[in-house]
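Data availability excerpt. The first of two example chains:
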Amino acid sequence: MKVTRHFVRVGEREVHYRRAGNGPPFVLFHVSPQSSAFVIPGMLPLADSHTLIALDTPGYGESDALPNSAPTMVDYADAALETLGALGLGKVPIFGSHTGANIAVELARRAPDRVAALVLDGLSLNSPEVSHDRIASYAPTFQPSADGAHLAWAWQHTRDQLIFWPWYEPHRPNRLKQGIKGPDFVHDVVLAKMAATRYWLGYRAAFGHDYRDALYNCPAPIYFVTPNADVHTAVERSLKGLPAHMYFIDTDHDGQVDAIAGALAKVKGDPSVGPAAKPGHRRRLYRDFVTVGDGQRLVRRGGVESGKPLVLLHGAMGTSAALVDRATALAAKRPVLAIDIAGNGDSDPLPKKDADLAAYAEDVRAAIKAAGVDGYDLYGEGLGAILALEVARQGNAGKVILDRPERPDAATRKDMIANVAPIIDARFDGGHFLTAWHMLRDAALFYPWYRTTADAVRDIEPDVEPAMLQARLLPWLKGRLTYGDYVRAALRADPDKLIAATRQPCLVFGTAGDLIADHARRVASALTQSTLLETERVAPPTTAMTQFL
């Protein structure tokens, strides 16, 4: 069953959700600090009879955070209710797991006419003393550190959450009767935790809220489908004076989906999914997914409505997120469109393994067309500049900006193809996070990043501030298994042939003193129409780009 990804605008926020299936809607709320990516796969057997709509909670996954600094469960529930309205949903059954269960119950309290049934997994019901302890200890804050130590902390914290309940009391009575899923699963949870906007907020809102009145007064049927081994099962079943509208379904993990299917068979909600509110043109950059073939590509778009659009392409170990500041500045004068290249960030990979650069360029052009853009200028950064030349060669591009283009000689290209973009396999101890951190850090210090000798030093002001590295690391790691395909495709292409085929006017940026500044000079001198501009700063000046365009 195909799962598609979407954004819907709710006020000034972007809410991300996944969708699959056909039939009446069934809304899914996920565990903290995860996202819809974790809840929808296990529910896919239900997609034959229902349209599954899995929301990313505000501040988690790809959904924008709420504006308040300490949101309560009421705030999360109200935000979920607004999203249901933006998606055109009426009265629907709602599934919630752990924090998601808490949001679902509070939503039912605040808008009982919108809830056909609650299907709950792992609702948190704590005494005031336990709540205070959980709020103080369960979800510590963290800040990125220069040595990457926060990555090791996040890995251990996540593993212990899977071993003990609560994780901070690692004693025999608190040992969970379950194994740890493989390192790929732990990696995904750690990535979600670090990418969340203050991941601890959802936990604290959940632990600090009392749901008993809402449960007893809910007019809709409530089905508890928490597996028997879950730590919350006994707490849920401690509810006294069980009302007739509450049902506990005995199940284990393997039987949970069947239990949910049985509950849904008894529920009548609104039968259809209304049209989602489509975002209109916005000056501020917003995210969207476009369909290319059988996959989706993430684009960031916005800017003024008039003028020729500028399409921005990122380089190696990057995504469109790394171009947001540049795109935002340029959006003051024109429409902009920044793309996660296939297999990078949130974009699906190309269907063909070992595709050449021409295939990546064709995919970029298809994404541009799917975004409704016809006729555009191009910006490419690093190896993205080589991709921009191939897109321009294939046609329909106007002017081209080449920002620190990479043009290594044939021997260096061969060496880089073998070494510059290794697959980042998840390790049981989380060591791969530190590997990726230092790959990204060294890319600002050496060229290529893995050649840490004196002749590879980049004599520039290094941009290695921890928060910046963290902001680049997290979206890049989403494509940790496929990002290298794009890099190798760019390196296998012959830059001289692409330069010779370029007829568009080009503005070429280089950084004075940088080891690869000579790359920019050689590219500019070989182009038929080019202007070379060397600057002291790594980031090219927006004014010069605007004047050129």
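And the second chain:
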Amino acid sequence: MPVAGYNNRVPDLRLARTLLSCLMLVALLPGCGPDAPGPAPEEAARLAAAAGDLPAAIEGYRTAIRQRPDDIRLRLELSELLLQSGDGASAEGLLRRAVSMGVHERRVQVGLARAAFLQGQWPELLAITTVREGLPAADRFELLLFHAHAQLRISNVSTEAIRETFHAAFGLLDDFPDTLDAPDAWARLAQVRKEWPQAEAAYQHFRCAGPAEALDDAPPVDPGQRVLKVGPSQTLKTPSAAARVAQDGDVIEIDAAVYRGDVAVWKQNNLLIRGVGGRPHLRANGRNAQGKAIWVLEGENTRVENIEFSGARVRDRNGAGIRLQGDGLEVTGCYFHHNENGILTNNSPTSEVVVRNTEFAHNGHGDGLSHNIYVGQLASFVMEGSYSHHARVGHLVKSRAARNIIRYNRLMDEDDGTSSYLIDLPEGGNAVIVGNELMKGPRSENPAMIAFGAERQGTDAEGLYVVNNTFYSRYLDATFVHNHTTAEAVVANNLMAGAPGRILAGPGGKQGNMMRPGLGLADPASFDFRILAGSPAIDAGVAVSVPGGDVAVPMREYTHVAGSQPRPAVWTVDVGAREYCEATAPRVAAN
């Protein structure tokens, strides 16, 4: 009888070694010439087994046992042949008789497991294979495979239990490749994976962890570009000094130091301004440029990296770390805190703003009109891998751009934040919000987490896609997504934990979302939103169709502080912002 995932060639490796030894003994026996009498039943049985004649070998062993009923060795060898022939019941009888004659049950555990398998005795097989400690690696591997087969056929065994069994088998192969004849063992596992989706899912979870990748490394400096050095020990002592002499296309490298009261207007195009040797800190100390910000960017296509901005305040109560007046801005690895706005942009239908791996904290005047980040009426806004928290009454992210992609960020009030919306897109447009961790605190100024089209209520919009985010609420009766437009929002595969609330207000479809207090998160009280083993969110996502491509498919996940890494692609997508991966998951009980 063929057995899925098992090698049924005759003889198998273990029996072949036994038979080879026996044949060598037979060859050395006296009286083996052409005139010698025929071999004894035991010797004839071994010769038949070596030739692949199982019926003759089995009959020879039975004859030998009748002659020597107390010979345990004969019973064990016959049981191996019976298992190869598919006669599990007869093999089980011989093995249990051997145990009653004094053989330790561990010695015949693999044989008993195979006998139970052949007879389809799944509960018995599960019990036989549960204890595996103290056995050689090869025997443990066999028992793990049998244990998995029993679990797969018993309806009330959890997916997590099946996954753990396969993970143990995969781990043995990694630890003992030579002992287990790894190529053959992996081939057997491949067959099981092909036949059982649970086995394939377990394998993917076992192999899912990979090295973290940096997101969009800084471009190298072109040899033809001019580099201006700024710092206390440089000729140019302050960033404002560099701003006065810079030319289009320059690279400005600012040494790590605190630059108190130094503000600047940058008029040049295609500048790369970055901190080196650490993160330089621009502390406003009551000063501002043009009554607007610490830095006013009037040129086009500016890139700012690794700079800290704090303390911007102006008469109009909207002082910003960066005020964008020209078209095009990319901000990477920066930190904006305790300003009235972190970043504030102009309105331009041709401008694009990208913010990556950047932290925003405690920005806002406190009147609800200034925010951690405030993007005007631009062509597009992208924010990813960033951390925005503790806005003072205003919003964590506010954008009037025609197209918004907000992905793989951590946006939260935490315990004492007083923000209004976590994400406010007041003019609607087209928005994709995917793979974010969003947390509303008990002191928030507004029950909604995401607001769409609040200033254009009842109008049409291109679309809102809220996919694979993790929401956590400490605000009683919060609304996770409030769609004020007439467009149908798509709200899918979101994990919503904490205090109960409303998934969607306004038109739209909901699919694949999960809402309940715990949902198998590692430690949401400490903002650890990794999924635990056993979480119902694992492999529970649904396919989401998004016009225009796969932009709503989560490809990365947030890493703290202000970063992201590739999200493992493991079987069916998990619900929420993170994918369960055995190699990285916390090993504690699920909630």
